[in-house]
Design a protein that fits this description.
Length: 293
């Protein structure tokens, strides 16, 4: 038997060398051999780094980026931002806190909430992502996620997971989820079963508190909770390939009252725009990354 493993990642078909099993056959037997090829398509499987590979990877300097603010927009400072997404000119936001958790459609230019769905008070809303014609929203410690119709916000169904729910994004093929640790999970978007995971590290040091996620140009961007940093992560190895330092993006003089942690990354794929905000922040920013020299 020949096992040919095919993997779809980033819209590309990635193959793994076939493994041939069975005994050697004589030329006579080979003439009667029926060769069976079993092809298994593993959607969004990762390319794990082996122990041998780890020893070959030498510590290296990870680039650090700062920012230039291109635009800023009004943000509801009562919104405890847990998830952010952008599609076709519209901003979508998931908010947290018991009794205040919601899914929202927001006018980017004005900050006005155009549509909202409130979660039952027992749920603490977390990350969101737009996947095809649905919006998927996690909850914190209830082990439950919700799937909504993207247009009407009608609840279509729910699903469960074993960990806490923090951030969620997707690579076009599968869902990628964080739980506040250094682990990112890959989920089948049809069954919501965990089909793989990576350990996020910066030169072999685990990077924990991974929160809101966004998949941008083949990399995973992750807010690191309680910091002003965003980690840029290789989805195959889990290595941090860059850091974004957003220190000082929210000046104290415009906050007016204590603001919570930086949290919220959205990307406009059509116009290559990157947006960030935070929990209870009065503004949302469009930024351009600038590499530190």
């Amino acid at each position: 038997m020949v096992n040919l493993i095919l993997c779809v990642v980033d819209g590309k078909l990635r193959g793994y060398a076939p493994v041939i099993t069975g005994r050697l056959f004589s030329k006579f037997a080979l003439g009667y051999l029926l060769l069976t090829i079993v092809v298994t398509t593993v959607s969004c499987a990762t390319h794990p780094t082996t122990e041998d590979d780890k020893h070959k990877i030498k510590p290296q300097s990870v680039p650090i980026y700062t920012f230039t603010i291109l635009n800023f927009y009004t943000h509801d400072r009562n919104a405890f931002t847990q998830g952010l997404a952008f599609e076709n000119g519209t901003l979508y936001e998931g908010t947290g806190l018991h009794g205040k958790s919601s899914l929202r459609r927001v006018n980017l230019g004005t900050g006005d909430v155009l549509q909202a769905h409130l979660l039952p008070s027992e749920y603490f809303g977390e990350g969101i992502t737009i996947f095809r014609d649905t919006i998927i929203q996690l909850t914190w410690q209830s082990n439950k996620g919700f799937v909504y119709d993207k247009n009407s916000f009608e609840l279509l169904h729910d699903f469960t997971y074993e960990t806490e729910g923090w951030g969620i994004t997707h690579n076009g093929t599968c869902l990628i989820m964080s739980d506040g640790t250094s682990t990112l999970y890959f989920l089948d978007p049809n069954t919501f079963r965990t089909i793989g995971h990576i350990q996020v590290n910066d030169n072999d040091k685990p990077v924990g508190n991974l929160n809101e996620l966004e998949y941008i140009d083949g990399q995973i961007y992750a807010n690191v909770w309680l910091t002003d940093s965003i980690a840029i992560i290789d989805p195959y190895s889990g290595r941090v390939t860059g850091w974004i330092d957003l220190s000082g993006i929210l000046p104290p003089q415009i906050s007016g009252m204590p603001a919570d942690a930086l949290n919220g990354i959205a990307y406009d794929t059509k116009n290559n725009r990157l947006f960030v905000t935070g929990k209870l922040w009065p503004q949302l920013f469009e930024i351009e990354l600038v590499r530190k020299q």
